[in-house]
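Researcher: First entry.
Model:
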Amino acid sequence: MSNTAYGISEPISTGGPSELDVVRNRELEKFLADAGLYESHEEAIKREEVLGRLDQIVKTWVKNVCRAKGFNDDLVHEANAKIFTFGSYRLGVHGPGADIDTLCVGPRHAMREDFFGELHRMLEEMPEIQELHPVPDAHVPVMKFKFNGVSIDLLYANVSLWVIPEDLDVSQESILQNVDDQTVRSLNGCRVTDQVLLLVPNIQSFRTALRCMRLWAKRRGVYSNVTGFLGGINWALLVARICQLYPNAAPSMLVSRFFRVYSLWRWPNPVLLCPINEGSLGLAYWDPRRNFKDRQHLMPIITPAYPCMNSSYNVSTSTLRVMMEEFLRGNEICEAIEANKASWGSLFEPFPFFEAYKNYLRIDIATESDDDMRQWKGWVESRIRLLTLKIERDTVGVLQCHPHPGEFSDKSKPFHHSYFMGLRRKQGVNPQQGEQFDIRSTVEDFKRDVYAYSFWKSSMWIHVCHVRRKDLPDFVFSGGVRPVQPAKSESRSGSRSLGSAKTTSPDAASSRKRKHDEVNTGFSPKGSDASSPGETRELKRFEADIGDTSSTTLVDNQVEVSIKSTLPVPVPVPTPASGAAVAETITVMQSAELTVGQQSGPHGVVDLGYVELTNGVKHFDGANELQTECPTPEQIVGAATSEEKDRIGGSSNNVLQSEGLEELEPIEPAPSSSIASAAFVVPQKPLIRFNFTSLRKTTEST
């Protein structure tokens, strides 16, 4: 068992797996194997051969560059370049057919122009290279291609060395000296991946848990950095933090604790694997004290390698809401699995996206060739998250979007793709605030942004329209066949019934069903009697009677776009209402100062209208000092079970005054233990200033 401290805090539990944990872990690993997550031995060997061949190619390329630039024979002979891997392949969690993220590190005189020039020409002439697609103007310039059928994403970094040694260590800070921003970003992938592997206590358990979470995220539709969810590195960092908090846990327990911790996490407090390194090279790093943009991040997941950056800056209010609801669902199912009331299969059920909402935005794009579609598709996908932000801002956060992370194609229409967004009204909002949603100007503004593409051609086309669930095209459904009877709807705001349901009167059930439909869609179109495909019990943590919902203004069935600001509106995080849930919630401690313009919903759900935050920043005589001290085990013990508390010397009565796991600054324990059995009461005031660094929770006297 591991006794070494990992991360910025003491672990929640150092206990190892029980006999039941071993059984559940065996079941989980069998499920992952049956899901086809592991590549064959033959494919693994093929990947190694491709990487070896690619390394030889770049070594030849750099010698050619030296000759072309007139360097002497000795320097040509010593000239070298080296291939590194990062991402899922380096982490050891890639599956069959996955691409390999690679980095070519070359000497100072082999410029990026040579990489996209001479090396591109060399690859273009090789018969084993297919689908070669350079993207030199990307934020991180990349060359994409297939090498003997293996997909490769190749980055380039020319460092300030005349000769690249074979034993080059890119994790050293000195590698970043005298290089441009593109090289820093290109090196970042390898440096972060290596640090993650160094910061987890058990690499094998980390890999199994991460494979599990990647599969879960893909099936639940929340695996996509470009559309505002989380990508591979984000999930890796989140899982790594859980591994630090439970260093000796089996993968099955890590998965369960993943959902427990992050369903209670109080964003925008950051997830950190280690203290933020300010470095000595003067490079910009994530620091909400100095950088205004960093204060606007909703779900900061900070990379551990210098310069530390927020890897999840794409997350919006809407996508954070979706992920938090998924974490809640995952936690419920894992609790049921531990009680032998559910199986792992139920955790990984695909989210029924086209049954979950009544209203969608449909985005169609088209071109006239494969090459044009590849470029146009990549550009449009990178812009879709901006449409989400624009809609959030132009409707003051009332209309929320759920973008589907993938595209759909009608086989009868070549060079044509469609994207979809589920739409619903924000929970707990006063109905008068959103009686109509006229987003035509918003969509038009979005289309103008898309058409501003530098390489736009007249054949590149985009169209955005509103479509109701009943009018969805058949090609979005499995096999191109629309279900005869829609399956039971899984509301993003409703709980997934795992036990016995409460007995309800027909009138109450009808009222709840109506409210569920309204929360689920955000719309109550006049003249429409369409109802949800099935009733789902509302999750207690999200209970909110929103009253009558409002209609949308849609002219000629078009929804077209306008943005006042791209600043997203923070999403409220659900709060448990039971004493036991509070004992759980009080665990994950946070330190952030929030100035909140608040409107409480009918059931205590808080509508956060405006949030100004200074993450973990203390003010000392006008100077800011970023706090990175680790919280004590007692400060985070609330997230553990009573058994786990005993393992680390905690007590079930030793709880904290705030809700969330502190990652930047330790929180002082509350003087009273009575809050463990008291429900969190939302203050009924229009404007409240929360200081989670010093706030002490109180309870109402009866």
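Researcher: Second entry.
Model:
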Amino acid sequence: MPPPSDIVKVAIEWPGANAQLMEIDQKKPLSSIIREVCDGWSLSGSEQFALRYADGPQLYITEQSRSEIKNGTILRLAISPARAARQLLDRIQSHGIDTRLEALKELAKLSADPTFATEFISMEGIGTLARLVESGTHFGEMLAFTLTAFLELMDHGIVSWDLISLSFIKQIAGYVNQPMVDVSILQRSLAILESMVLNSHSLYHRVAQEITVGQLIGHLQVSNQEIQTYAIALINALFLKAPEDRRQEMASTLAQKHLRSIILNHVIRGNRPIKAEMAHQLYVLQVLTFNLLEERMMTKMDPSDQAQRDIIFELRRIAFDGENDPSGTEKRKAMYTKDYKMLGFTNHVNPAMDFTQTPPGMLALDNMLYLAKLHQDTYIRIVLENSSREDKHECPFGRCAIELTRMLCEILQVGELPNEGCNDYHPMFFTHDRAWEEFFCVCIQLLNKTWKEMRATAEDFNKVMQVVREQITRTLAMKPSSLDQLKGKLRGLSYSEILRLRQSERMSQDDFQSPPIIELRERIQPEILELIKQQRLNRLCEGSCFRKLGNRRRQEKFWFCRLSLNHKVLHYGDLDESPQGEVPFELLTDKIPVSDIKSVVTGKDCPHMKEKSALKQNKEVLEQAFSILYDPDENLNFVAPNKYEYCIWTDGLCALLGREMGSDLTRSDLDTLISMEMKLRLLDLENITIPEAPPPVPKEPSTYNFTYNYG
């Protein structure tokens, strides 16, 4: 007879004694269980003790968290959080250096525990640590442990960052500004400053006074990628929280300090692979840089503003006059209408009206002027080439440039906040100081080329723009490393190639509507679904690494989950860092019997998402969240690292529970594999010759061993 669900079997350790094997009744108060444990070792004062996990983060067990104890867990009897906090607080203020160092080392480890942190903070522990830093008497390891403990304690959100003193900020900033400082101290100092900026508006101004972007750029030229990551993260935080009028000034400073070329040469083209957190910070910097275009994108042109109108006159002059002739400008205004028509503006009389819609607003005019001045030969060729075509086939440069600018803003999400968890940076945007404008110049030439290839007319304008969007998005997905590589890849994606790709994709998803084919499809579908099911379950057996949601990304925790080879148990456990391959079952200390799983929920129905806000930066987290609900009333919460892993795991869990797999990935795989199998079988039919002998034994149904390379 199985034990009651309220009973868990554990081992409990105590230094210098044999472990106790116990059955814990989860209905009993935790204090009663601790008393029983203390009695087993003849320890008095059970209220001075607590239980902690022996493995992993070794967190304290509370009434709220005790439900997470599983059969076979190894626990450890330890002094209570309050007692540990009091002892450590006394020891870190002792005169003995060795005693203080050991205490700070233990404190740095315990501070990640929310139960301990609450007790330590209630004893004014954060103030004590701040004073130790402000005194300037701690160095080396001692200072590193002090800063680690301080950061861990503050990350619990129990006290406000606004309470931090100016002298503490100056001391931390001093460590960042020092030319030679211990790596661990520098790393933690950068992280503390980043948290200050992100969590307090008033502290942003104080930090901005103590730290300049120029000082941070020096930390990007080191060989340690962790330091580089923290430095870019702080630059991003200062950028993100800066008032709008300060951001352009910061951007100018970054340009003067050659931030882009330093990142390109020391980070992107360095001799080390880019880690996930660095990729995220590069993506954030890319987004924040492009967001500087938002003001121009949302600024309408004022048709009565002569300075703005002069830009349009300059476009006309470069294309048609060859040299400036301001004295004749007024006399020739009547002739401008014809020129504006050849330039491709919608409003030939007053082209300023073409720039009154936002987006793209004045940003489109900025792009056109950049092309006309910096790539004058290209600009003149495009305009004159189209003005000499038959009317019905001319490509309207002005209209195309405006619509292309709008499209590029949508593709690169100009004006949107960075998404948490997104690593989608493009190396080529770090290869040029005017990357946005150069990107536009490449794309407007692509548009003109595609227009000619399609032999388009004015009525085909939207169709051309759709093809150009597809050419650009497909090429961006290839992550070209430079603008020259972008041009080469775009040349390979001609209109005919897009048609071929579309046809190929359409054929692979074609249902072939004739009755015999429909019947064949229905006969094939169950075996293909079973194949997909097995692939999903195999992936669950290999397992995946997941990131724990927390306040700080670079101090993030990881955990791993995988299905047992007999498909009966889910094993999981915490990891110190993201693994490079498969994690052995022995290292995964927790498990859930599949028979205990009641259901799988996703998105906003997940317990860990119900408290999450619907802010933009949480959107992707929400879309990739899922939870396993299991007996008695417990849950295991996941946030998949990407959409592919989300589909694999939710489909795999549904297959495990005998439910229908319904993700977009499964539908896509089903269509693709059925089409492949049908084509093979139809090909066999086409090659049949009528034999004189009895027909051969039919071939076994085709099977596929397929893997994915999901970007």
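Model: Note on the second entry: The radius of gyration is 32 Å.
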